[in-house]
Amino acid sequence: MPRITPDGQSTIGPGALAILLGISEAKIRDLNGRGIITRPEGAREYPMIAAVNEYTAHIREQAAGRNLPEEMMTAKLAKAKADAAKAQMIAARMQGTLIFADKIETRWNAAGRVIRASMLSLSSRLAQRLNLGPEAAAIVKEEIVEALTALADNGADQAHAEEVREAVENARSD
Questions:
Q1: In this structure, how many other beta carbons lie within 10 angstroms of the beta carbon of residue 39?
Q2: Are residues 106 and 169 in the same domain?
Q3: Same domain for 79 and 37?
Q4: Cα(139)–Cα(135) distance, rounded to whole angstroms?
């Protein structure tokens, strides 16, 4: 096996350079095309020491996180932000300052049911306290039902609006 003694004048072909660096010839061509490993204009071989130095500098830059494509840097930044947000949520949950959306929804639904029941019972309570006849009590009940329906239409998403409408219809039939 011939002994190679590199000096400033030694050159190396792409195949031998690929073997020396432990990469493919296609990668050598790619690095050359991107200007990472250079050779003199029109030359078929690379200056050995310069090519190795250029390649190792490129690898060091990559390892340090520099010289990365912009999309990769953007993706790394987005992941870091997501990881930080997740850590904050976990910490808040452990401290008891974070309440999951489904628990909030359950509590609001329970509060809504209590309000609805209170409002729907209002007509019969008023009828008793004010000695209202059945006709006046029905008018009060109809006004309360219309107010609850308007709230359902304007203050809730469609699924909850349908729930409230159904409850109001049930109240009308009582």
A1: 17
A2: yes
A3: no
A4: 6
Domain boundaries, position 24? 11-63
User: Which residue in 85, 22, 80 sits closest to 52, CA to CA?
Assistant: 22
Q: How many CA atoms lie within 13 A of 146 on its CB side?
A: 6
Task: State which amino acid sits at residue 77.
Answer: L
Q: Radius of gyration (Cα) for the chain, nearest Å?
A: 38
What are 60-95's pLDDT values in tens digits?
A: 887 776 666 777 778 888 999 999 989 988 888 888
Q: Which two tokens stand for residue 13?
A: 């072909």
What own/partner pairs with CB < 8 Å and gap ≥ 24 does 53-60 have?
55/21, 55/31, 58/31
> Is 3 within the bounds of a domain?
no
Nearest to 157 by CA among 111, 114, 109, 125: 109
Token pair in block for residue 27: 């990668």
The reply to whether 26 and 54 lie within a common domain is yes
pLDDT of residue 1: 47
Q: Which segments in the chain show pLDDT lower than 70? A: 1-7, 65-68, 154-174
Length of the chain: 174
pTM check: above 0.85: no
Q: Which residue has the tokens 């073997």?
A: 19
Q: Are residues 41 and 81 in the same domain?
A: no
